[in-house]
């Protein structure tokens, strides 16, 4: 199996970034909190943005459709 590394500094793969996005991390900062990618030299941040922009984040799709995100639903309750 071929691994495509997004972050060389911390050995984070594209698959790991997609998994964190599926778990709710929808910004490069949230990805960084989850796995440190983007926190050292920063050269992977644009790649992370590209991955997130390609629909890796289910919550982003809800926001794009004008539906409230889960956090907004919790605040309203």
UniProtKB/TrEMBL annotation:
Q: Which InterPro entries does the record match to this protein?
A: BFD-associated_ferredoxin, BFD-like_2Fe2S-bd_dom, BFD-like_2Fe2S-bd_dom_sf
Question: What are the record keywords, sorted?
Answer: 2Fe-2S, Electron transport, Iron, Iron-sulfur, Metal-binding, Transport
Annotated Gene Ontology MF terms? 2 iron, 2 sulfur cluster binding; metal ion binding
In this chain the BFD-like [2Fe-2S]-binding domain maps to 5-53
Task: Write down what this protein is called.
Answer: Bacterioferritin-associated ferredoxin
Kindly indicate whether the keyword tRNA-binding belongs to this entry: no
- The organism is Streptomyces aquilus
Which family does the similarity line name? Belongs to the Bfd family.
């Amino acid at each position: 199996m071929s691994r495509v590394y997004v972050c060389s500094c911390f050995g984070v793969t594209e698959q790991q970034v997609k998994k964190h996005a599926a778990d709710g991390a929808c910004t490069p900062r949230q990805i960084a909190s989850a796995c440190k990618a983007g926190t050292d030299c920063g050269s992977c941040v644009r790649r992370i943005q590209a991955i997130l922009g390609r629909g890796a984040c289910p919550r982003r799709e809800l926001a794009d459709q004008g539906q409230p995100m889960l956090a907004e639903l919790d605040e309203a309750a």
